[in-house]
Amino acid sequence: MSNLELRPAPHPCGGNGRTGPVRDVQPGKQVPLGESTVVRRLLPNLGRRMVGAWCFVDHYGPDDIASEPGMQVPPHPHMGLQTVSWLREGEVLHRDSLGSLQSVRPRELGLMTSGRAIAHSEESPPGHGPLLHGAQLWVALPGEHRDTAPAFEHHTDLPVITGGGGLSATVILGELDGTTSPGTTYSPLAGADLTLAAGTDARLPVDPDFEYAALTISGESEVDGVRLAPGALLYLGCGRSELPLRADSDSSLMLLGGEPFEEKIVMWWNFVGRSQEEIEEARADWTAGERFGQVKGYDGGPLPAPELPPVPLKARGRAR
């Protein structure tokens, strides 16, 4: 998925050590995406830029798209990151410059590693269903893997943790409670879709060396004693060995975590880099039609790159 803002701000991230257990609720920002979709941007936000290597989170829907085109994101570039597509309802057709053509459906993992350069498009296919609900997330690649070969993975059989207390957890990426997703990772991560039945009262084992955040997908739930309404992100910090979860009615949330990302990065538009020069080069290459390849089959032209901001792009700390 692309950041479609016409004047995307540079986001200095990374390199700020560890934070002990906290309960910091941070609201999302409404951002238009394409022709008919509005997303809640939960990362980066005014208070936090990253959670582990997770550096970007958009939550959208549930949207009624029965009489709408739905998601229509033209071909656009990525570098230095992985994209994670996760659906609760609907279907998204992925195309990329490697020649991949894949429909991603609910509870299937669409994982694209950009490495040095890739381009892709995302669209609701013709004859799509009436609802669209999901999340798009980015993972920053550590320095030693930034030039890895681009790749796309599609996993339909993801592991599920079922314990007592009304909790069920699908492990999307990384590892949670000793269970590992088949998706390729390049840093220690955790990403899971948690379903809480009415009356849930459970404790989920987590890694005390990871920092975590929870965001609501549907309904209201209580995470470590904090009531979390839809459209918000709860940053939890590090230092926990278990996470208390409660719900009075059926609800769901996503749990994201990972070892704090120690490298300093700059995220601008759809690029993750380490310097202004890298970002400028990537923008110039995309504009010139070089390096990122072509996405074939999409009905429309590629997304033009916005103008660079007038201020220098600098890598600083990962949180304000």
From TrEMBL:
<feature type="domain" description="Pirin N-terminal">
    <location>
        <begin position="43"/>
        <end position="139"/>
    </location>
</feature>
<dbReference type="InterPro" id="IPR014710">
    <property type="entry name" value="RmlC-like_jellyroll"/>
</dbReference>
<dbReference type="Pfam" id="PF02678">
    <property type="entry name" value="Pirin"/>
</dbReference>
<protein>
    <submittedName>
        <fullName>Pirin family protein</fullName>
    </submittedName>
</protein>
<dbReference type="Pfam" id="PF05726">
    <property type="entry name" value="Pirin_C"/>
</dbReference>
<comment type="similarity">
    <text>Belongs to the pirin family.</text>
</comment>
<feature type="domain" description="Pirin C-terminal">
    <location>
        <begin position="192"/>
        <end position="291"/>
    </location>
</feature>
<feature type="region of interest" description="Disordered">
    <location>
        <begin position="1"/>
        <end position="30"/>
    </location>
</feature>
<feature type="region of interest" description="Disordered">
    <location>
        <begin position="293"/>
        <end position="320"/>
    </location>
</feature>
<dbReference type="InterPro" id="IPR008778">
    <property type="entry name" value="Pirin_C_dom"/>
</dbReference>
<feature type="compositionally biased region" description="Pro residues">
    <location>
        <begin position="303"/>
        <end position="312"/>
    </location>
</feature>
<dbReference type="InterPro" id="IPR003829">
    <property type="entry name" value="Pirin_N_dom"/>
</dbReference>
<dbReference type="InterPro" id="IPR011051">
    <property type="entry name" value="RmlC_Cupin_sf"/>
</dbReference>
<dbReference type="InterPro" id="IPR012093">
    <property type="entry name" value="Pirin"/>
</dbReference>
